[in-house]
Write a structure and sequence with these properties.
The complex is a heterodimer of chains A (251) and B (222). A seven-stranded parallel β-sheet of chain A has the order 3-2-4-1-5-6-7, sandwiched between helices. Chain A has 251 residues and is an alpha/beta fold. Chain A contains eleven helices and seven strands. Chain B is globular. Classes of the chains: A alpha/beta (251), B alpha/beta (222).
Amino acid sequence: MAKPVVIVVGADKGGVGKTTVSRTLLDYFSANNVPTRAFDTEFPRGTLKRFHPDVTEIVDMTTTSDQMKIFDTLNSAGPSVTVIDVRAGLLSPSLASLRDIGFLDAAKSGQITFAVFHILGPSIASLDEIAETANFMQGAKYFLVKNFINNTSFFEWDQATYNSYFHRIKDATELTIPKLNEMAYEQVEVASVPFLKFVANKTMNDDAANYSFVLRGYVRHWLANVWSEFDRIKLTDLVGSSKASARGGEK
Amino acid sequence: MHRTPIYIICSPRPLVGKTLIARLLSEFLLLKNGAVRAFDINLKEPSLLDYLPKITETAEIDDTFGKMALMDCLIVNDGIAKVIDLGFHAFDEFFKMSGEIGFMKEAARRGVSPVILFVADTDRVSARAYPMLQQQIPATVLVTVDNEFVVRGELPQAFARGRVLRIAALPGFLKTYIDRLTFLFTDYLRGERDSSTELHQWIRENYFSFRELELNLILQKS
């Protein structure tokens, strides 16, 4: 049986694009035929669930019962990849919980593949988050995501300061999510469909939709750039899947 | 399957004759097919809208709304040929956008045939723009327009390799004559009894070149 893979997407700050990155990950795995399930911790109303209702469950990460729902089912016969969209402010507490239940030790010993996508905001507080999160990262793949989708500018960072934080974490990898045209982003929000379905001009039920060709083009171009970042970090290798020769979204 | 042609007349330079070619082509298509839709993205220069107001719509690509309004309309295979008079100020943005949204591929998929008519000039801006187009546009649908009135001599070698459409220069007084806003090429052909006049022959030659271009495209597709 394939080794379970858990990918946590989080930040301690809100509005930095955690759910957007989670959505691109789910689209990426879907296009690469990697069976995936997702947990949305924006309890009780999840945004991720709205875009990927078939694979997403809303959970309250602070309760033991929901922690059991996520982690006690990792070795079951279901999808091998679990994406957890951690709501704002819960990243550090969630990692602490994972340490307490022995999950991080399991990752360290290689029983589980564990990756964290840490979405960075523009403020210096994000750099402090890196330092805090780094304490939990032994045995995990740590990805620092600079998300430009909502036109974030990282001007507040002094490069030397950033480097000093960045280098504290061994093997951390930087990722860049480029900016998406505002109107295209808004239209996908309104349509409430995965990016892939928007590009394919389909509704959630796979019926033909009537999205703008221009906006679909922008989303396709942007998604291809995001996925090339995922390809660069060899995400499919990380989850133990050989990449399909022709991806659904690229057809 | 019938394919809908879109002729995009463009140059990164002002005053190279884009609107003149757009006028000629629009009138030719109107004469031949009975219908044509022209789009003027050229409001800062002499404008197609001023010459052919009945068939011309204005379009803007400065913002996403404008791009959607234009491109969502162009990508439809409705059998009506489209002509775009693309102003020099919109050249970069248009091709950047069409590259990003995959316009050429989507057009091929939907039975729409874009043809790019690049009006050549001898300056550096044109020399830089052409390779960019070559990267994005298949050679079979990238046509260089050699407007004798602009190039005045040999077409630079870089442009001369692909398909070339020549537009002969007219004497100054005829140029002034056809530049009048009320002048229509087809009306002139119909109204002028003497077919040996220079202008008569010039219009017929250009219409013939367009017909040839159209036939070549049909042959390539088949």
